[in-house]
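User: Could you check the structure of this?
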Amino acid sequence: MDTARLAAFTDGVVAIIITIMVLEIRVPHGTSLAALQADAPVLLAYVLSYVNVGIFWNNHHHMLHATERVDGRVLWANLALLFWLSLVPFVIRWIDDTGFTALPTAAYGVVLMCAAVCYNLLQREIIRVNGRESLLAVAIGDDFKGKLSILLYLLAIAVAFVRPWAAIALYIAVALLWLVPDRRIEARARS
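Assistant: Sure, the predicted structure tokens are below.
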């Protein structure tokens, strides 16, 4: 199997996820700047979510660029990743409805962490199909950033029950860690 259908399907699902996130944004109640300011925390959560979904999509794109073949296990791993990403609008709505309280803020981290775990699983399955000497395998190496991200998500989930805003800061830190597209694959593709 080649990667074109997998990429097209993933692109479509990510586009739907982003569309749902946008449609879930509530319009401020009023026409003043104060009305907009009241919704600012949730709008910033939507921005963070948009960035996170974009990071997964961008790195997925790079990963598939370095992939020659996929099989059924890769397809299932990809579906697992998309499942967790599809829950991002749900947890954002929960945060919007309840405020930045402990459980919804922790749930946001659980969704992001599970997406990261599934992304790592997808990487491993692609490497299994394409070989340990494949472009992807060589490019990601020991994947320190991937492992660090999962650890930071675990920490943030625990912190959410004590200080939800500190957990949000950790989610932002993980996003900043990945904001620049993963250059490891691009560098290997050029050499």
